[in-house]
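Q: Convert this sequence to structure tokens.
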Amino acid sequence: MVEDIETVRQALGLGKISLLGHSFGGPLVEAYAFKYQQHLSHLILASTFASTKELNAALTKMKSEMPVKDRERLEALEAAGLFGQGATWEHGRYTEEYAKLAWGIGYFPYVYQKHPDPNYDL
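A:
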């Protein structure tokens, strides 16, 4: 993906560029910055993480705390492939079922364990 960014920059004939990395885009643009620092004027990171190793450990912990039945279904969906599945509008994105399992049952209870109402955000 880093090479994709560089290919687009070159194809558009751009000099130095500013990159914004949000969520998973954060480590992507960080990797770009390590390799192509000379082509960057600004690097902006928003709501992201600095370590994919630490993120994967946190996601593994979240998944391990899911109810067994839900975790098994989540893993079955992952094994089948996450894209090109479900309704036509879901192709190219997570299906509604996967999103509800991963985010609704896996992520939100873990993040909001002391404040179970996800509308209560500090």
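The helical segments are 2-11, 25-36, 52-64, 68-80, 96-111.
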